[in-house]
Design goal:
Elements lengths: L1 E9 L4 E5 L6 E2 L11 E8 L4 E6 L6 E3 L1 E2 L2 H11 L8 H8 L4 H7 L9 E4 L5 H8 L5 E5 L2 H9 L5 E3 L5 H8 L6 E5 L8 H10 L6 E7 L6 H6 L5 E2 L2 H10 L2 E5 L7 E8 L12 H12 L10 E7 L6 E5 L4 H13 L4 E9 L7 E5 L3 E5 L1
Parallel strand pairs: 1-19, 4-19, 8-9, 8-11, 9-10, 11-12
Antiparallel strand pairs: 1-18, 2-20, 3-7, 4-5, 5-6, 6-13, 12-15, 14-15, 16-17, 16-18
């Protein structure tokens, strides 16, 4: 099946990135978690011949770009472009991010002495570091890739932070002077990194046996399909089996996943001398495809007629399609739907057309492929 994406209608905080040359993308055909082959789940194409493939690992459920930007592009994007222009709202966001969260509950469930070294990968707005300081922890350091955020944390919150990507040699050398870290934690960062396995292995080198690693990422079960397919900064989408396998093969045993929900995976792990790697049951490709077809309501779309597809910013179950047009019916229906779903709703104009009889789902843009960021 194939969907022509005719027009971007409402992005609600996202921006569009025009992909001029997909030949510059790196080809990746193996799962970033378990190493098995990726099967194409979706093909994003354009009239100029561009192609970006989204792949799914049937073994563990990992989803990621089979054609992804280069490492240097990713590093530069997060250092200079990510959330650019939002500096004025950093202070309010820092307060918001400092509120109770599942990963903070997970950390506080551990018996860690208040003077033990702790490192946060992706310190963001500094909210988590500040909360730990308020709870008596004294030996903290954050690593933050964004120049804007790192400057804010250092100058406004007066918190210790290293600016740069975690896997950078200079950052690693600075952290080695403080290591070993009793706890390393990261909240909604791993999905943005170029190579998640590299991040986990670098973290392991900064810890001793029995030290803790706490990781939180979006859960593929509850992440909206449009985010998985078109939100460029989320280079990786994880299932519980995928994330657990990645941690286990890097030398961590899983202690708890009880703080996880359908929207978020939170895993407490501990570095161990001997780890038993979980068996993978497989069958995830069909699950992922069914999720996308269902959430996008592809089977309900009329063939050859333009419709407006709307989806929630956060809630994967809140999607709708309505006929496009300037009729009173269209305007009233659109208004009702947006009132029913008060959270941010994004929308595009699409048309389902006959596609080649292949398993993957096709998405076609006129002229150039568009991916989204913020």
């Amino acid at each position: 099946m194939k969907l022509n994406i005719e027009k971007i209608l409402e992005l609600s905080g996202w921006k569009s990135w025009v992909v001029h040359d997909t030949a510059l993308f790196v080809k990746k055909n193996f799962c970033s978690c378990c190493g098995n082959s990726l099967q194409s789940l979706a093909h994003i194409t354009s009239e100029n011949g561009g192609l970006i493939r989204i792949g799914c690992c049937d073994a563990c459920g990992y989803i990621g770009y089979q054609d992804m930007p280069t490492r240097s592009w990713v590093i530069d994007f997060y250092a200079k472009t990510w959330m650019k222009g939002q500096e004025g709202s950093l202070e309010s966001l820092a307060r918001k991010k400092g509120k109770a969260s599942a990963i903070m509950d997970a950390i506080q469930s551990l018996s860690i002495p208040r003077n033990e070294p702790i490192c946060e990968i992706g310190a963001g707005y500094g909210g988590s570091l500040k909360k730990l300081i308020d709870n008596g922890f004294k030996n903290l350091v954050g690593v933050e890739h964004s120049e804007n955020r790192a400057t804010f944390i250092k100058n406004k919150l007066r918190l210790p932070v290293l600016q740069g990507n975690f896997e950078n040699d200079g950052i690693q050398q600075a952290l080695e002077k403080i290591a070993p870290f009793r706890l390393i934690f990261s909240s909604h960062v791993l999905e943005h990194t170029y190579n998640p396995e590299e991040i986990i292995k670098k973290a392991s080198l900064l810890q001793k046996v029995n030290d803790y690693l706490v990781i939180a990422v979006p859960n593929s079960v509850g992440e909206p399909s449009m985010n998985i397919l078109f939100f460029l900064p989320h280079l990786h989408t994880f299932t519980k089996p995928a994330l657990k396998y990645l941690l286990e093969k890097s030398g961590y045993k899983i202690l708890s996943e009880t703080y996880s929900t359908d929207k978020e995976i939170v895993i407490i792990a501990q570095k161990s001398e001997k780890v038993t790697i979980s068996l993978l049951k497989g069958g995830f490709y069909d699950i992922a495809r069914t999720k996308i077809v269902g959430e996008l309501k592809i089977e309900s779309m009329p063939l050859g007629k333009s419709v407006e597809f709307m989806w929630s910013q956060k809630n994967s179950t809140r999607t709708s399609i309505i006929p496009c047009g300037k009729s009173i019916f269209y305007r009233v229906t659109n208004k009702i739907i947006r009132r029913i779903f008060p959270e941010k709703m994004r929308s595009i104009q699409v048309m389902k057309v006959d596609g080649e009889n292949k398993k993957f789902i096709g998405f076609s843009f006129p002229k150039n492929i568009l991916l989204f960021y913020k």
